[in-house]
Amino acid sequence: MNLFENSLIHSSKISDTILGLVSNYLGIIWMIKVTKNEFRFCFKPVNKSQHELILGWIHQPHINEWLHGEGLSNTIKDIDQFLNDGEPWATHWIAYDNETPFAYLITSEIEKSEEYPDDAVTLDLFICRLDYIGKGLSVQMIHEFILSQFSNAKIVLIDPEISNERAVHVYKKAGFEIIGEFIASWHPVPHYKMQLCIEMLKNKKC
């Protein structure tokens, strides 16, 4: 084999290596792009500029049917604490469809105990924009919120009123299971305690 042939072979190997590296790079970029665009919705904590938006949302009749009295008062106070560097008991979120804010979510972490030895989070949520109600988006929103914000947690708990049949149906469809009943201190009517195992949700999405 002469020097020219050897150079051609060497150049061919280099080209193959470069093509392989480019292919791997493009594959990684594609994976990042898919991961980035995997979810329709995005979620951000409420900021001060959105205070009036949230207050307007939670005073709508379809929200006040289920959030009222002491529960509403406590929520308003906690929003103030959250936005003014106080000591809130919850984190307050807004869900966006592209750039459109349409839903309000509330989460809080549960201290580890004998009942909940692993990381557990409570969730409450409201579809606030009227033109987003009845679109069948709640289950997708719940799944995307949990997987994007609480993928390292173990359990999510939610506690709808038993009479809120629409919400209970949605939560069951999202994978929550009824694990008990209780009378809420902030609104003395029967509530369900419902639980979702995040690992099961992850496996379902695989």
Automatic annotation (TrEMBL):
One of its GO terms (molecular function) is acyltransferase activity, transferring groups other than amino-acyl groups. Pfam families: Acetyltransf_8 (PF13523). The keyword Transferase applies. It comes from the Bacteria. SUPFAM superfamilies: Acyl-CoA N-acyltransferases (Nat) (SSF55729). Keywords: Transferase. Residues 41-199 form the N-acetyltransferase domain. Gene3D superfamilies: 3.40.630.30. InterPro entries: Acyl_CoA_acyltransferase, GNAT_dom. This is Aminoglycoside N(6')acetyltransferase. The gene is aacA4.
